[in-house]
Amino acid sequence: RYNVSQLEEWLRDKNLMNSGAKETLEPLIQAAQLLQVKKKTDEDAEAICSMCNALTTAQIVKVLNLYTPVNEFEERVLVSFIRTIQVRLRDRKDSPQLLMDAKHIFPVTFPFNPSSLALETIQIPASLGLGFISRV
């Protein structure tokens, strides 16, 4: 969650919150939150179902199935809890897609900053072994 927060902070710093990147990060944000919340009671299941609206049912179930506790004080998510989530989300109309659409492309513009050095004044050291480069 900390790393995702750092990405959100970077978006804010660069004034990119309205670029669509935040919406693309939303499933990742919700997956991080899903890993942090309690996963035991019916109230927990209800909270997860309402919180994870950017994740599909398949994604929620996959995260819960693959969740591995980091210490002995936590335990794996019970199969009965995962079934409760599936029942609650059964009427949700979402894509069976498990992963994010990798074909989605964001336009990125980099400003051109010309160098103050003229290209013909640059000397390439022989120690770099780039003798095959010649000036034209």
Task: Give me a quick take on this structure.
By secondary structure, this protein is an all-alpha fold. 43% of the residues lie in helices and 0% in strands. The chain has one domain (1-98).
Written description of the protein model:
This protein has one domain. It starts with a helix and ends in a 48-residue tail after the last helix. The protein is elongated. The protein has 136 residues and is mostly helical. Helix 3 packs across helix 5. It contains 5 helices and no strands. The longest helix has 16 residues.
Task: Outline the fold blueprint.
Blueprint: H1 2-13, H2 21-36, H3 42-51, H4 57-66, H5 79-88
Helix pairs in contact: 1-2, 3-5, 4-5
Strand content: under 5%
Q: What percent of residues adopt helix (DSSP H or I)?
A: 40-55%
Mean model confidence by pLDDT: 84
Category from helices, strands and their pairing: mainly alpha
Q: Give the radius of gyration.
A: 24 Å
Listing every helix as H and every strand as E from the N terminus to the C terminus, the arrangement reads: HHHHH
Number of strands: 0
GO molecular function, one term: GTPase binding
Organism: Todus mexicanus (Puerto Rican tody)
Protein name: MYO5A protein
Pfam families: DIL (PF01843)
Which short descriptors sum up this protein?
136 residues; mainly alpha
